[in-house]
Amino acid sequence: MSRLTALIIVLPALLLTGCSLSGTVVDRSEFAVQVGKMQLAGDPALKVYHGGALHLIPLESIKTLEIDGEESMNYGGEFFMSASITLKDGTRKVASGRNSDKRSFVSVNNTITGKSSNGVYSISVDNIIRLEVD
User: Fold this and answer.
1) pLDDT (tens digit, 9 = 90+) per residue, 58-85?
2) Nearest to 61 by CA among 89, 37, 38, 24
């Protein structure tokens, strides 16, 4: 089979299935679940308030997300909780300091869905304390 023929056969299958994210979700009771086909059910990206601006960060760009919830804020009619985020490129947005412009807050008005070993998985972002994306 030629490379072109293989590409013609494989490419449509990849487009139909899309990129599949997997990772570990740790909930507020510290129960960890391996989740495949992970995606955001609401907005296509996590909303992160950092440095006085709203950033939209796709789930596939995140390496780790830790929501400590020590502080919270409302912005644009949404509820945000303090969080530390490490992106796959090494950039960090940290929940530290007393000045809210230097802290990071993540919108909890979203849900992560996917598949676990027990079937369909769904968790509201406000119930997550740690997320690791493979």
Assistant:
1) 999 999 999 998 899 999 999 999 999 9
2) 89
